[in-house]
Amino acid sequence: MSNKKRSTSAKTRKKAATNRRNAGMSAAMQWGLLIGLGALIIGALVFNAARDALDDGGDGVVTATAFDLPALGDDDNPDNRVRLADFAGTPTVVNFFASWCVECDRELPEFRNAAIALDGQVNFVFVNTNETGDWEDMVDRNGIADFPLGKDIKGISRNGLYRSLRGTGGMPMTAFYDADGNLLDVALRVFDQGSLQARMQQLGMI
Questions:
Q1: Angle at 127 between CA 66 and CA 116, to 5 degrees
Q2: Could you tell me which of 196, 185, 47, 187 has the C-alpha nearest to residue 112?
Q3: What is the largest CA-CA distance in the chain?
Q4: The sheet that has 123-128: what strands, in order across it?
Q5: What's the start-to-end Cα distance of the chain, in Å?
Q6: Nearest to 169, CA basis, from 195, 124, 125, 132
Q7: Which class for 109: exposed (0-12), middle (13-18), buried (19 or more C-beta within 10 A)?
Q8: Angstrom distance (rounded) from CA 48 to CA 44
Q9: pLDDT of the chain along its 206 residues, tens only?
Q10: What angle do CA 72, 73, 76 make, to 5 degrees?
């Protein structure tokens, strides 16, 4: 065999060996990525479970269809509750608000006006959630102090009911229930009185 042919054959073998090594490295990298991704997913699940166990903010139930919350601002009376079951027989609107939420501040008077207009036809409940500041001033200036006011509990930010209704951080949020306590809709949007009543009509609440 000539030197040229031997040289070409050696280069071919070297290239084949390099390709095999690269293929092996690629497979190893793929397995490494899959293992890393699996670890991240498991870590996220563990974190969420731990987060929901922290800072429960009081006793009660935060399932979307059977909530039982402490009354807002009445920590000295644990028997004062805001329960979905207490509103049975009449459709119920549950509005979630926080003092830092500018859009909540803008829509709360609209909910108050709708509640006055629909007195006896629809229950209106307000739940303070994801709170980081002073909710009292917000309640007073928007005229909702005389309505049922609940304090969200559980979760890392005292937002267990909010999270059970698929809240992901955005505010405001409103949940709509029929007279039997069945969840009809959850809206992550701002309402005025007209659009709020139109939504209730669409849902058959009024």
A1: 105
A2: 196
A3: 103
A4: 149-151, 123-128, 92-97, 173-177, 183-187
A5: 95
A6: 132
A7: middle
A8: 6
A9: 555 555 556 566 666 666 666 656 566 667 766 676 666 565 544 444 444 444 545 688 999 999 999 999 876 677 799 999 999 999 999 999 999 999 999 999 999 999 999 999 999 999 999 999 999 999 999 999 999 999 999 977 889 999 999 998 899 999 999 999 999 999 999 999 999 999 999 999 99
A10: 115
Tell me the C-alpha distance between 11 and 93, whole Å.
77
Give CA 94 to chain center in angstroms: 14
